[in-house]
Design a protein that fits this description.
The chain has 86 residues and is α+β, with helices and mostly antiparallel strands. It has one domain: Translation initiation factor 3 (IF-3), N-terminal domain (Ubiquitin-like (UB roll)), CATH 3.10.20.80. The protein is 22% helix and 26% strand. The chain has 2 helices and 4 strands; from the N terminus they run ββαββα. Strand 3 and strand 4 form a beta hairpin.
């Protein structure tokens, strides 16, 4: 089903990995890190999803407990490596 929203609709593994379930975020803003772990800034969740979609990147939750929550952009191959090797 491609109507799930939240970006990355073409990646079915999102449903299996809670770190990729952006809908879990209760805050209206997030702290976004780029693929090199550099701070992008504090932005809206929808802006983070837009940046990920426009750059064909995955968006993963690093910390839901942060104020605001922390997200990071990943290339799909890099995310799989981090997920397997953590």
């Amino acid at each position: 089903d491609e109507e799930g929203g939240g970006g990355r609709r073409d990646r079915p593994e999102q449903e299996q990995d809670p770190a990729l379930d952006i809908e879990r975020i209760q805050s209206s803003t997030v702290r976004l890190l780029d693929a090199q772990k550099n701070m992008v800034g504090v932005i809206s969740v929808s802006e983070a999803v837009r940046i990920a979609d426009e750059n064909d990147l995955m968006l993963a939750i690093l910390s839901l407990d942060g104020d605001p929550p922390v997200l990071r952009l990943f290339e799909e191959k890099d995310y799989k490596y981090v997920a397997v090797n953590t």
